[in-house]
Amino acid sequence: MTSSLHVPKGTRDLTGREVQAFAALEQVARRVFGLFHFEEIRTPIFETVDLFSRSLGETSDVVEKEMFTFVDRGERTFALRPEGTAGVVRHFIENNLAVQGDSHRLFYMGPMFRAERPQAGRYRQFFQIGSEHFGSPEPAADADTVLMMSRIFEEFGVGEFQIHVNSLGCQTCRPKHRAALLAYLKKRESELTEESRRRMEVNPLRVLDSKVDGPKLTDAPAMKDFLCSDCAAHFDLFLGLVQKETSRVEINPRLVRGLDYYTRTVFEFVSPLLGAQSALAAGGRYDDLVGMLGGPSVPAVGFALGADRVVEAHLKWRGEADKAVSNQTMAVVVAMTEESVPAAFGLAQKLRLAGFSVPPLLPAKKKLKNQLSAAVDAGAKWVILIGEDELKTGELSVKDLSTRTQTKVPQQKIISYLTGTP
Please, what are the domains in the chain? Predict the structure, then answer.
C-alpha cells in the first residue's frame, strides 16, 4: 500500500553518509571555534518578524518573499529564523553584553528556514554554522574570521575553494557610490526587470545582487573607486593579513551582499564542485547593525556557512567510493557459533569503550561470507572472528580488510593491536 505521508517540499531526511558528514563538519567547526576562542550560543528557532525585517532590510528577498511567518494564539506575529545573525545580535542587546567586556565571540549551528523555490543545494529547511565577533573595529578581526572559515574547510575537506573579498565602504563614502550607481542605473532602466526598477530607488546595490540583472551590469561604478581613506586603509590592512596566510584570496569588485547591514569588508567562499550554486559561505563586517536594532554603537564581523552545500562539496570531493566519512575506525565482530555470542558481545562493548565504531552483532547462523560482505559494504577496516577455536585458544582471528590479510591476536592484546600501540 502506498503511503500518503511525504516529507514537506524543499526538505529532506538526513541519513547514512550524509548525516555522518554533517556530524563530522559540526565536530570540526566546534574544534576550530575553540581554537579562536569562540563560545557557543543557541537562539530560538523563531523570533518576531520585526527583528528580521529591521536587520535584513524591507527590500531584501528574504523579507519580501522567503520568510515563514505565523500568528500565535496571542495574535503576535513570528517568523522561523531565515538566518542566524539577527538572533545573536538580539541576544547581545537584550543581555547588555556591551558593558560586560570589550569583545564577545559567539558561534552557532542549527536549522534555518526560507520559503524559496527548492533547487540544487537550496532547501526550505537548511543548516547553517556561523560566528559573530562583537567589539573589535580592527581589520585583524575580519582577517581572523576569514582564516577561521578557511581552517574549517581545510580540516573538513571540500577540495579546492576560493575566497572572494571586497569592501562596501561606510556611511561616509557609500552615499557617493550610491549616487553614481543610481545615475548609471537610470540610464539602463529600460533594460532592468520590474523588481530591479522598484528596488533601484531604495537600495541600488540590490540591483547588482540580482541574479537576472546583475550579470549584465559589468560596467557599473565600483565601490573601490569611492572608498574614503579610512575604508581604503582598513581594506588594505585586512587584505595584507589574509594574503600573508593563504593564496586563495581574490579581490572581486562585483561582490555585494544581499543584506542591508554589511559595511566595509565582505567575503564569500566559493567551490568549483557546486556549479552555478557555488557559494559555500559568506559574511562580512556590520558595524551599524547593533545600533540599528536599538543597541549601542558596537562594531562587529561575522559569517555563516551553508552546511548543506559544504557537505555536498565534501562528498563530491571525497568520491562515492569513500564510505567512511566518520573519523571513527569501524570494527565488525562476528560470532561464528551460538556459543561464541556472549564473548563476541562482550568484545564489542570493549571496542566501543576504546573508541571504535562497532555495529550490532549479526545472527550467528548468518553465513560468514554474507557477514564479511556486509562489513566491506559498511566501510569497516577490521573484522574480528570468534568461533569454537577462538574460545578454546583465547586467540582472536582478525581480518584487515584494507590489506586482505588475517592474523591471530591474543584477546588481551586486541586493543593495542588494532590501535598500533605497544
Answer: 16-173+227-318 (3.30.930.10), 331-419 (3.40.50.800)
